[in-house]
Amino acid sequence: MIHLILFSFAPSSLPLQLLVIVVGIAIVLFGADKLTEGGASLARRMNIPQIVIGLTIIAIGTSMPEFFVSFVSALKGTPDLAVGNIVGSNIFNALLIVGCAAMVAPMTILPSTVKRDIPFALVASVLLLIMCLDATISRLDAAILFVLFVVFMVITIRSAHSDPSGEDQEETPKATSPLKAWLYILLGLVCLIFGSNIFVDSASALASSLGISDAVIGLTIVAGGTSLPELATSIVSARKGQSGIAIGNVLGSNVFNILMILGVTGLIQPMQITGITSVDLSMLVISMILLWLFSYTKYTLSRWEGAVLTAVFLGYISWLVTNA
Questions:
Q1: How far apart are CA 7 and CA 67, in angstroms?
Q2: Which of 101, 93, 235, 252 is nearest to 168 (CA)?
Q3: 22 Cβ partners below 8 Å, 6+ apart?
């Protein structure tokens, strides 16, 4: 089954590799959008509460690019690309996305975000750092991550039901016909599988062409590409004054990326990690600590704090590029 899905496709020339990477990102993002729309529509027809749809189907849907890219990378034997995608995406989310959103408009942070979401994301980041000390994510490690994801979802959904007016409410698409919804789901899955395959193959080929590691490509190009949904959502939400939704989506994505994506991927395919350094994993933890400290002060993120987060991200990327 894996061999039927995981075809090999990677052009030999550098310009074509870059072009195919862009095309792959576009296909993956389109697939995630259609899968989310179809799933949310079916959920509405089944009378599932909107808050639950937002916390599950839509939240998971926006993280499908990271999931499929990391999953396919692991199956194709490039675990550094898989883990680099997750680590890079989370750093991208916490520093650049939140930083840019705060510079667009100062962000009000909800108490539940400071007390629950950020600490959980920080714990997940520290746990990943500890698990990677032996350069391996085993099935036992992956099982621990996945169990914690289930715990997080239970806590979040219970909190949402007790406070339905909170930040977790999401706009969901109007219910379409069941046939159309299933077609959207099928189209989304096909696009995610196809786009992820050509994206991963071309990213690995690009790393070879440039003489740099899969880990660096995963931490930069792949992470930035798969984080585009969170970037767009957060910037638009900040402009509309919905800063609680903006930062909540980012933090939820960070927790999902580590606990669910690496949990499921590691259960199916244990990963040997060679290119993700202690600096990368430490930056993941530092990004969450900075975000927590800034959020804890008056439950706001000011423009200057957003500028600091962005500057830290640019410094880290500069270090990566210099050492590559």
A1: 18
A2: 252
A3: none
| CA 184 to each of CA 6, 37, 40, 180, 181: distance values in angstroms, whole numbers, following the listed order | 22, 7, 11, 6, 5
C-alpha–C-alpha distance, residues 219 and 203, integer Å? 11
- Of 18, 75, 57, the closest CA to residue 193 belongs to 75
pLDDT (tens digit per residue) in 71-104: 888 888 888 888 988 999 899 989 988 898 888 8
* 41 sits in which H/E element: helix 14-45
Residue 119 scores a pLDDT above 80:
yes
Look-up of token digits 């430490």? 282
Give the pairing of strands 300-301 and 107-108. antiparallel
> How far is it, in rounded angstroms, from Cα 260 to Cα 128?
12
- Structure tokens given for 293: 């400290």
Within a 13 Å sphere around the CA of 162, how many CA atoms are in the beta-carbon half? 7
Residue (of 92, 95, 188, 87) closest to 137 by Cα position:
87
Is residue 110 within 8 Å of 246, Cβ to Cβ?
no
